[in-house]
Amino acid sequence: MNMRAVFYEDLYEFYNKAFSFLVKHEVKNSLPLTILNSLKKNIQKYGKEPPLMFSLAENGFIKLISLMTPPRDLIISYTDDLNNVKILVEELSKKNVYLPGVLSFKEAADKFTKLWCEKNSLESKLLRRERIYKLTKVSEETLGDKLFSVATKPHQPTVLKWAREMITEALLEVTEEELLRNNNNLKDEFEHENSQIYLLFEDKVPVSMARKAGKAPHGNAINLVYTPPFLRRKGYATECVAKLSKLLLENGNDYCFLFTDLSNPTSNSIYQKIGYRPIIDENHYRFYSKKLKKKGQKVS
Description:
Layout: E1 3-8, H1 11-22, H2 30-41, E2 52-58, E3 61-68, E4 74-76, H3 83-94, E5 101-105, H4 106-120, E6 122-135, E7 147-150, H5 156-170, H6 176-191, E8 197-202, E9 205-215, E10 219-226, H7 236-250, E11 255-261, H8 265-274, E12 277-289, H9 290-295
Parallel strand pairs: 4-5, 10-11
Antiparallel strand pairs: 1-2, 2-3, 3-4, 5-12, 6-11, 6-12, 7-8, 8-9, 9-10
Helix pairs in contact: 1-2, 3-4, 5-6, 7-8
């Protein structure tokens, strides 16, 4: 067995190595694929600090990919051999890399977290249990008859407000810096008349939104699905996501995909009603010092 671990500084060299491996399990690797596509367009898309890019190969064949865009958490690709996760831990330790957390399919995230925390005398917290869903056909009964269109400049205040509410509701430990970065990205889209937000209307008033997000080779993600609390349980989110999913399929995508929080049974039920089917479960952990836990300090 000839294992070779490589850290990359050149994005295009890494992309050329990683792409063919990641696309073998395209939906399971949808997050690193969409991040890589975004980085190719703008290397500073997620911040000024260079991304961490890693590959592990056996006899010349890639077996695992890992990617981190500081200050965000480490992402580990799908791998059919969890022993590769142990090697990743060893290689990152040699580099003395600081990791705020990790996100990967459940088995890999659990193993990495255990090994990394043991090695670095850290504690961990499970932030979210997620599930990746894939859709290839929209259930016609969910499409409804309400007005649906891309958000335009006059809708910007509503979209920015809803996006902030959605993120703070879904991500309990989100930082103000992350909220500001997302706000600026959305504002930039509006300024360049390139909004990726789609709205559902009732009597010409927006009632729900969803965003056309990252692009995988053959599919497109949907995120920022949000309906204000006082408008929920009226089927607005279902119709909004169904309509956007149908639009993305009509625009040439083979499938749509999205991430759900497993602690929210309502959203998981809604997506399955539309036609989404579960692909794989993922765990998202955050790491922090044992001293912080003992002192009861809040961890950001």
